[in-house]
Design brief:
With 196 residues, this protein is an all-alpha fold. The protein contains nine helices and no strands. This is Helix-turn-helix domain-containing protein.
């Protein structure tokens, strides 16, 4: 077999591992899933599974990257980054194991030497840019006050989204997407806050 054939098979196997991992983590959760179970599901040993990744932490980061890729394909509403965020959060309520994986790995990845650190740095940067652009578009159309700082508001919306995902894990009555939507409706004037 040529080197190119081995490479293509390796890429295909890695893709199979990531898609299977998404199913396993969605169904069984972060704590309920083991590398042994994941390896068995793709007909590999644990050592064989980790052959495709530099470490367990890199595998987890790649699972999250794949999740983002599939969510982008399924839920992206062109020109409406906030609508996309809300749709993804509604979907996240159906896959609590992946939400747990995300919050656990994102907290660990704050350490600069963590294998997932570059993934999260890039992810937050890209998401802030996408949200800020969407906010500027809404400002230009008159839907949102032009005095608001788009970059800061984008960072705040991401913080609210991540914070609601964390709170939701403690008490699922706190609907992740509903709270983000409510904040947005307050900012756009659809919902007025009454202060006394």
């Amino acid at each position: 077999m040529t080197g190119r054939g081995r490479y293509a098979k390796g890429v295909a196997k890695r893709e199979e591992i990531l898609r299977t991992a998404l199913e396993v983590f969605s169904r069984q959760g972060y704590r309920g899933s083991s590398l042994r179970e994941l390896a068995a599901a793709v007909n590999l040993s644990q050592a064989g599974l980790l052959h495709y990744f530099d470490s367990k932490e890199e595998l987890f980061a790649e699972i999250l990257r794949k999740r983002d890729e599939l969510d982008d394909e399924a839920y992206t509403a062109p020109g409406d980054a906030l609508g996309t965020m809300v749709a993804v959060m509604r979907h996240n309520a159906e896959v609590p194991g992946l939400v747990k994986l995300y919050t656990t790995i994102s907290a660990a990845a704050t350490e600069p030497d963590h294998p997932a650190h570059p993934f999260f740095v890039r992810r937050y940067e890209e998401m802030r840019q996408i949200l800020a652009e969407s906010i500027r578009t809404k400002q230009e159309s008159g839907e949102l006050d032009t005095k608001l700082d788009a970059e800061k508001l984008a960072a705040i919306m991401l913080a609210v989204a991540d914070g609601m995902q964390l709170q939701w894990q403690f008490d699922s009555r706190h609907g992740m997407a509903d709270h983000v939507e409510y904040l947005w409706s307050v900012l756009t004037g659809v919902e007025k806050l009454i202060t006394r």
